[in-house]
UniProtKB/TrEMBL annotation:
It comes from Hungatella hominis. It comes from the Bacteria. This is DeoR/GlpR transcriptional regulator. PANTHER family: DEOXYRIBOSE OPERON REPRESSOR, HTH-TYPE TRANSCRIPTIONAL REGULATOR SRLR-RELATED. Residues 4-59 form the HTH deoR-type domain. Keywords: Transcription, Transcription regulation. SMART domains: DeoRC (SM01134), HTH_DEOR (SM00420).
Amino acid sequence: MNKKETRLNNFIHFLKIRNSITVKEMANHLNVSEMTVRRDIKELTADHTINFENGKIMFNPQSSLSEASPSYSLESEKEKRNLQKELIGKFAATLVEPNDTVIIDSGSTTEHLAHYIPGGMPMTALCYSMNILNELITKEDISLIFPGGFYHPNAQMFESQQGIELINQIRANKVFLSAAGIHRELGITCMHNYEISTMQAVIKSSVTKILLADSSKFDQIRPAYFASLECIDIIVTDHYLGEEWQEYIRGVGIELYLV
């Protein structure tokens, strides 16, 4: 854990003990400047971990985050904003229709989508991560395509050039995408470069591009760029998304669902 992660964890843990605290008190506790505390506040309010009102910092009781850890792993992601992700995935499952061919990206939110797809619906689904496969494999009447390849444990994702070639031969009605960051100018990003080729292949192979992302992903930038916002047809997110983002999304012609 690096210095910043340690400080953010101490920030959260101390706030849980004190319930509310001023910027000055937090700066004294962490032995940092008030400017540093204000930067941390901006980051932690963006993902709804804390509230900052009338000069007081308070832990958000609706947050499921117990500690701060920017290093991605699928298992740790499942613990963050799980209620919002479940609602997003549950709604997204209603967009799947009988006889669809769909592609489901890796991720913790798309896992909820896979879970809520009803059994007994005739359809074809392509996926490339273990958690999505585990959700779909027991459902009746779903024809599964699994490209395979090299396994990346942190994302539970398989990828290979051969897998991408198979994806390039598939044509889907819909692709359900996840993202680690969404930015107006810098587009949609993920955590790892090895994801990029697969993500771009599934986008090219699908008619309707549907992005599933909780509101904390907006205004975030991650290292690996894979698509512009303009290529997205539908976004499903939670009702915490700010009004400016809502207006922007609708303004560029993207269909928006808030759950």
